[in-house]
Amino acid sequence: MSSRAAPPNGDEETREFSVQDLLNDAAQLEDYKHHCVGCPANVRGRPFGCVGAIQYPISRAAENWLMDKLPTQDDLLAWLLLKEGIQEFKYDGETLKPLREIPDVYFTSEKPARRLLGTLPVTADQLFEMMFAVGHINPQSCGDSVAVCARHPP
Fold first, then answer.
1. Are 100 and 55 in contact (CB under 8 A)?
2. 64 and 113 in contact (C-beta within 8 Å)?
3. Phi, psi of 102 (to 5 degrees)
4. CB 91 within 8 A of CB 85
5. Residues 93 and 144 in one domain
6. Is 154 a domain residue?
7. Sign of CA dihedral 93, 80, 77, 151
8. Do 23 and 92 reside in the same domain of the chain?
9. What average pLDDT does the segment 96-116 reach?
């Protein structure tokens, strides 16, 4: 297997690994899980419960980084999925508006990051709404989100 990481600094890297590599890496953490008991970052109430949680407030740099992962018309299938999803489900970002009105709690910026993807204007709030404000997700919507946000190198 391989994984491609694209951190905010723009340096992309690809890492090859096996399932056994992942299991070996995880086993090394067992000696440290007792530190999670009572840790304020352990929002999930289990060992390593700080992982997989969103750290607030979300910075403008994080919003911009996420917006930069969106497909352009050059990646037509993913772009069409995004465009159709926004239009069909009427994602307008309004559900996030009350969160932006509370300074520095959920977002560091009063206004969402914006990006024009060809003919499609998109805001970070529309993207967050699509990813986090839809209730329970199903495999199809999860696959669509991955397809939309997983920009492939040329």
1. no
2. yes
3. -100, 105
4. yes
5. yes
6. no
7. negative
8. no
9. 93
Nearest CA to 50 among 59, 39, 58, 62? Answer: 39
Tokens of 120: 């499609």
Q: What's the token pair of residue 116?
A: 């024009």
Q: Are the C-beta atoms of residues 43 and 50 closer than 8 Å to each other?
A: yes
Q: Give me the pLDDT at residue 114, please.
A: 96
Output the six-digit token pair for 73. Answer: 């018309």
Q: Does a structural domain hold residue 80?
A: yes
Q: How many domains does the chain have?
A: 2
pLDDT digits (tens, 9 = 90+) for 34-83: 988 988 777 788 888 877 767 789 999 999 988 988 888 888 888 888 88
| Whole-number percent of the chain with pLDDT over 70 | 79
| Residue 79 host element (H or E) | helix 76-88
Chain position carrying tokens 């840790």: 39
Q: Cβ of 29: how many Cβ atoms within 10 Å?
A: 12
